[in-house]
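In response to the reviewer comment on reproducibility (Comment 2.3), we provide here a single inverse folding case reported in full, input and output, so that an independent group could reproduce the run without further information from us. The structure tokens appear first.
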């Protein structure tokens, strides 16, 4: 206690000594002094009076100091705070002697520049205010000596640009204000050095360009105000250095675009003000990375479209201001666009052209306390729309357009039970008898159908083919009849310049709108929806997904190929399309590839190749390559020709036949193209007659009622482009066998010769009906021919598989066990009663083969048996003879 008393006295003595020693220790004239405080404000001073050197605080504000203050502050070594506000200074006075000065207020003067040489090295100044001057120019390095500056205010000047590296020495600066200037560009690295800056205000300038890295070096900035400039877009480039930013205001700019990923470098942002800009849509990733955002102000933009995922990152968001936009649709039709905002407390959707509210619009918003829906002409609100908002207490609604039909009664109840009425001033517009009634005063009374449009035909999802026309149809009814307007939307935005045909039917109660996409391109894919409004409200159709496909187009087409047997065949086929088409192959329109069965075929999808090795004639045919995708199918055909020398597939066999019997000579051949067969008997060409038939493409020579003159050497000569071959058969005709025949029974004999043969893949039935009249009995048969008919029935092997085992399918075969002995000849020379005829057939013919239809027709009408020919008889000519009393066929 004693010590401090002594020290105080000592200090007083020192002070008195100082005053006594100083030139002017007295208070300046007109001024008021209080200890080290000298107040010369409001004294109309035009020059700085003599100021005592002991001054620590000097107030010279509200005077008329102008140019001539040079030297005024020399030697003021103790000066700490000086106020020069509201004078007429044109330059900054020199403070180089004021080695202790901390605060200088030069607001409201006429200073036009900041020049070098005004502040001492390592200046102690920490606060410098130069608001409301006319500063245009800041000299390069002018602030270099102000190394201890903490606050610098340069608001309301005329600064258009700042020199580079201006703030290199301001590592202690915390607040920098440059509001209301004329800065238009922020160059990269402009603020380098401001490592302690926490607040930067550059509102009301002309900034339209923020260069990449403009804020680089800001390690500590947490408030950045760029409101009221001319910024057009937000990009990641200028976010470098803003890691600490928690408040960014960009209101009243011209922002219409936010780059994807823009916020990646400032994930600590908590408050973002983008109000009064030109944003039109919020896409899913526009606000990506803003996981800590608490307040998002988007009011007074031009937002009409919000994607489902737009706010899904912002779990922390507490305040979302979307008032004064055009987001009607999001609330009217989308389901749960805000559903991830579990922490939202304040939600403003005022003035958004919202006409109706769907039941799912506010799904997931469990913590909303304030919901503002004022200034929307809402006509209807679906039940349960606010169910999730159990904490809602301030619900603001002032529509006067409510459609008070039965469907609104839930709301009457909800307002009464859950809300404070004072914020709800909504009134009914329809039906007429309740117009103007406050919703919460509405009584439960007879109510009618909703007069909003009803969609009776929704647009349908489909695949649209590129470069063709695509249509989407939407029909709606309105009862009572009220003019409906249609609007088409695509991917949650309006369709620009749509081609739409509309027509109205049923006395104006039903209307149809057809959206025509005349020349579909890839850009037309998306989800389409029609929105129908009448004066009572708006109805949304379901969304139709239109996918664009392009028709397949060949880039490689197979070409006709000709090869010899044994060679390798290559067919090419490739096609493009969207989605990429699938390639498939067919042979002769079917899926049976002989080469595949024999493992000689290979399809190589990646090389678009189709191979057949060791080609055989069975491979011949038309190969079709089909390229198919949902848009359609295209087909390219190529014929494969396989050349093969003519050859005999069976050894030609010599034959013997009993005179009068039938015999078949076989010359079974192969070759490609199909060889021409020439039959020669003893060197001369065979002439077909009523006893000599050629069938099965001349491979069978059938001789009926053989005679000794038929004996001889039969030559079969076969020829195609690749050559000629011949071979020979010897036919012996044995003497006839004598048969006893009763004369009276021998008139009207019909001999049916059936030859069955396998040729290639077909069974050939040759039915020769030989009608004769026999008048004489005896050893020699005499068959004077009255008529001969031959018919050939071709049967595919698939219906008689027993005849052709698979392994011989490529050959022709006539399973003739030898006709020479006529062993299978069956002759019915018996009693011609109907009964006996039938007996004959049943015993002679067998059951496993269906009737030969042509043969049946050729039989006389008195013969009505169902002819069945046993498979086994197929191999030899079988001759059936019939006789009849009065047959005159
Ligand atoms: C810094 O102070 C020194 C010495 O007082 C002076 O010569 C110099 O011009 C000053 N620099 C600036 C940029 O004011
Ligand atoms: C200014 O301060 C720096 C660091 O504090 C010091 O190194 C330098 O000597 C000082 N300069 C003067 C002229 O006092
Ligand atoms: C101030 O900045 C100038 C130029 O960048 C530099 O040469 C000088 O050393 C700095 N002075 C202090 C005290 O940091
Ligand atoms: C956003 O900026 C506007 C205009 O400056 C202001 O009116 C509004 O209050 C700000 N929003 C928030 C949430 O601070
Ligand atoms: C708002 O968006 C609409 C299209 O939705 C556009 O026609 C209009 O020009 C925009 N208004 C402003 C001020 O950008
Ligand atoms: C809402 O209705 C009021 C009164 O009917 C009208 O003046 C106003 O223009 C309407 N607003 C909109 C956005 O349709
Ligand atoms: C409905 O549309 C028709 C034809 O466009 C028009 O003549 C009529 O005035 C409209 N009615 C109303 C109520 O707008
Ligand atoms: C109206 O639309 C329907 C359905 O698309 C159509 O069948 C009818 O021809 C259209 N009528 C007129 C007059 O265009
Ligand atoms: C391929 O062969 C088919 C018939 O076999 C024929 O119609 C077509 O013209 C041929 N194509 C070419 C390119 O020769």
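Designed residues, in position order:
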């Amino acid at each position: 206690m004693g010590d401090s008393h002594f020290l105080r006295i000592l200090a007083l003595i020192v002070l008195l000594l100082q005053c006594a020693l100083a030139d002017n220790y007295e208070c300046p004239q007109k001024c008021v002094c209080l200890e080290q405080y000298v107040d010369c404000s409001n004294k109309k001073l035009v020059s700085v009076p003599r100021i005592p050197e002991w001054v620590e605080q000097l107030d010279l504000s509200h005077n008329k100091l102008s140019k001539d203050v040079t030297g005024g502050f020399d030697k003021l070594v103790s000066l700490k705070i000086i106020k020069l506000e509201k004078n007429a200074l044109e330059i900054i006075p020199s403070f180089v002697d004021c080695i202790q000065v901390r605060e200088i207020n030069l607001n409201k003067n006429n200073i036009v520049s900041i020049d070098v040489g005004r502040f001492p090295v390592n200046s102690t100044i920490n606060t410098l205010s130069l608001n409301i001057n006319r500063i245009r120019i800041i000299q390069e390095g002018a602030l270099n000596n102000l190394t201890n500056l903490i606050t610098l205010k340069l608001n309301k000047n005329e600064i258009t640009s700042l020199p580079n590296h201006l703030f290199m020495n301001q590592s202690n600066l915390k607040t920098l204000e440059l509001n209301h200037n004329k800065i238009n560009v922020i160059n990269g690295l402009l603020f380098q050095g401001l490592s302690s800056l926490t607040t930067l205000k550059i509102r009301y300038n002309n900034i339209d360009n923020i260069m990449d890295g403009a804020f680089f070096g800001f390690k500590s900035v947490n408030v950045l105000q760029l409101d009221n400039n001319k910024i057009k877009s937000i990009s990641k480039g200028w976010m470098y250095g803003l890691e600490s930013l928690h408040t960014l205001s960009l209101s009243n700019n011209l922002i219409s675009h936010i780059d994807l990923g823009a916020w990646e470098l400032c994930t600590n942002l908590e408050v973002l003000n983008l109000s009064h800009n030109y944003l039109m849509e919020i896409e899913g990733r526009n606000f990506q990375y803003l996981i800590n955002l608490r307040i998002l102000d988007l009011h007074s933009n031009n937002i009409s479209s919000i994607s489902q995922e737009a706010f899904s990152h912002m779990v922390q968001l507490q305040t979302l201001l979307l008032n004064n936009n055009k987001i009607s649709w999001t609330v009217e039709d989308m389901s749960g666009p805000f559903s991830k905002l579990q922490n939202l407390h304040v939600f403003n959707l005022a003035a958004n052209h919202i006409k109706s509210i769907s039941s799912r619009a506010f799904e997931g918003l469990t913590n909303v306390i304030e919901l503002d829906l004022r200034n929307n002409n809402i006509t209807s609100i679906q039940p349960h729309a606010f169910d999730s908002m159990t904490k809602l207490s301030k619900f603001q609604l002032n529509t006067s357009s409510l459609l008070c039909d039965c469907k609104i009664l839930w709301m009457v109840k909800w307002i009464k039970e859950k809300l404070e009425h004072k914020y709800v001033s909504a009134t009914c517009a329809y039906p007429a008898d309740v117009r103007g009634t406050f919703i919460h005063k509405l009584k439960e009374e007879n109510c009618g159908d909703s007069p909003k449009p009803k969609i009776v035909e929704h647009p349908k999802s489909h695949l649209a083919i590129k470069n063709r026309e695509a249509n989407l149809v939407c029909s709606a009814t309105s009862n009572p009849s009220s003019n409906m307007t249609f609007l088409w939307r695509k991917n949650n935005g309006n369709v620009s310049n749509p081609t739409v045909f509309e027509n109205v039917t049923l006395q104006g109660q039903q209307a149809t709108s057809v959206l025509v996409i005349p020349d579909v391109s890839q850009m037309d894919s998306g989800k389409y929806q029609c929105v129908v409004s009448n004066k009572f409200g708006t109805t949304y159709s379901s969304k139709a997904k239109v996918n664009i496909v392009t028709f397949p187009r060949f880039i490689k087409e197979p070409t006709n190929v000709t090869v010899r047997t044994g060679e390798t065949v290559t067919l090419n086929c490739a096609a493009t399309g969207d989605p990429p088409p699938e390639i498939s192959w067919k042979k002769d329109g079917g899926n049976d590839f002989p080469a595949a069965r024999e493992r000689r075929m290979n399809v190589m999808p990646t090389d678009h190749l189709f191979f057949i090795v060791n080609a055989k004639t069975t491979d011949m045919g038309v190969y079709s390559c089909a390229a198919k995708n949902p848009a359609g199918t295209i087909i390219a055909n190529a014929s494969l020709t396989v050349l093969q020398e003519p050859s005999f597939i069976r050894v030609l066999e010599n034959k013997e036949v009993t005179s009068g019997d039938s015999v078949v000579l076989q010359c079974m051949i192969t070759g490609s193209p199909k060889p021409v067969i020439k039959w020669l008997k003893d060197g001369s060409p065979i002439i077909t007659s009523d006893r000599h038939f050629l069938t099965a493409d001349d491979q069978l020579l059938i001789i009926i009622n053989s005679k000794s003159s038929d004996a001889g050497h039969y030559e079969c000569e076969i020829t195609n482009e690749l050559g000629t071959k011949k071979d020979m058969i010897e036919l012996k005709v044995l003497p006839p066998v004598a048969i006893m025949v009763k004369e009276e029974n021998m008139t009207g004999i019909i001999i049916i010769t059936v030859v069955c043969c396998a040729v290639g893949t077909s069974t050939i039935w040759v039915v020769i009906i030989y009608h004769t009249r026999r008048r004489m009995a005896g050893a020699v048969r005499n068959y004077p021919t009255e008529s001969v008919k031959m018919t050939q029935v071709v049967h595919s092997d698939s219906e008689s598989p027993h005849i052709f085992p698979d392994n011989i399918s490529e050959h022709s075969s006539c399973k003739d066990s030898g006709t020479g002995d006529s062993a299978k000849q069956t002759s019915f020379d018996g009693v011609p009663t109907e009964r006996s005829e039938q007996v004959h057939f049943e015993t002679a013919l067998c059951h496993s083969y269906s009737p030969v239809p042509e043969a049946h027709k050729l039989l006389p009408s008195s013969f009505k048996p169902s002819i069945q020919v046993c498979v086994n008889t197929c191999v030899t000519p079988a001759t059936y003879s019939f006789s009849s009393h009065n047959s005159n066929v």
